[in-house]
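Hello again, I could really use a second opinion on something today. I've been staring at a protein lately and its backbone has me curious. You're getting the sequence in one-letter code plus the fold written as tokens. I'd be grateful if you could look everything over and explain what you see. No rush at all, and the record is pasted right below:
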Amino acid sequence: MKPTLQFRLSQHLTLTPQLQQSIRLLQLSTVELNQEIERLLMDNPILEREESEPESAAGNAPRSESVASDAPAAPSGDAAPEPERSAEELPADYAAPWRGQEDDGEDGDRTHAAPDTPTLRDHLINQLALTNLSERDRTLVGLLIDALDDDGYLTQPLDEIAMLLPTDAEVAPEELAIALRHLQNMEPAGVGARAPGECLALQIRAGQEKGDSPADTATAVLALTIAEQHLALLASRDYARLKSLTGADDDALRAAQAMIRGLNPRPGAAFAKLEARYVIPDVIVRKVRSVWRATLNQEAMPRLRVNRLYAELAARPRAAGGNALASQLQEARWLIKNVQQRFDTILRVSQAIVDRQRNFLEHGEVAMRPMVLREIADVLGVHESTISRVTTQKFMATPRGTYELKYFFGSHVATDTGGAASSTAIRALIKQLVAAEDSKTPLSDSRIAQILGEQGIVVARRTIAKYRESLQIPPVSQRKSL
């Protein structure tokens, strides 16, 4: 084939650096956005945070960077958004039109330090130091303490632990068994157990030895028997076999079950250090004159501006050295504009969600209407992927709680009247039905589907089972009580 030259005209989408940054900022959470801004503040000397000024001196501030009086208000849900301006049209001292609180210094630090709680190992080692055991026994008990997991269980067999020790130590499994008994006598009760049944049995024995258990001896003996031999039957609520194997009646079995429920199957969990996660809502929803309105959370918004001195230096001719700062000035303007556009988009999407979920705000989950991302995208005239980015890891504070924006979207189920019911509303109905059921005759999935069908909501039994499992509601056999 003879090679030839051809001219072809085509169109393709080019992602400019500004557009790429806008998309990246839109999909970041509030915490990730603050981290990204801190990084850019370190890299770009022209970009800086706007300093907080007293309200009395705000009107007399000589700096033109302050936008307290000239800043446009954040657009409401039914207000037209501010016309977009290119980065070149922004003034050198342009600042974002919002005023969030500055987290500068110790007063603005909102990190909540966890209390200095000793670990399970430290707690047990301190008890071991107070015992009258020999040095060898203390060493063996300390070895078993190091082998405990976070819940306080010894998951490794004693024979295997003995094999891991040096041969010259000459430690027999019997010595480890004695050391394990010393460990199991320590606090918290149940530590050093090798199975949940053993953990509960240790706690029952410890309660009887201390004499602080309100249950009588017969109840403790029955609870001990169930914990050591029939814990699986109790977990599956097979009360008929339990009564047959133990010879107990309904009252005795009910008392033993209550005693076992009052125990802690994870004694070491109280010493685990858990990091608390604090959610900062991006939007706050309030009811103003019988109308639900979404407003941006000022505390979640960074206050950025261009440094005036550096901006003047960047505006100088190239010979004067201004060219070195020109690109950083452009990047600072882009960032301020993209951050503002990010919050404007979040507000528009949030207000559109609020307008369609008024019944949820008034009556709760049972009134949640079905909604998909495309519905909001068509209303706002944006792409569906934009709505997906906005609703991920963005949170809305409402009088009913704080929810991720994605929470308000879900599948739907048809009704007899030709309408649709939200899956969230169906889950709420299932939760209400299970909460109001008779524990002696709990509702099966088929019965729940029948009840919803009587209300005009056509739901298959397998769909009920799927929603019930998502709510972490056990099946009917495990919800039955004596």
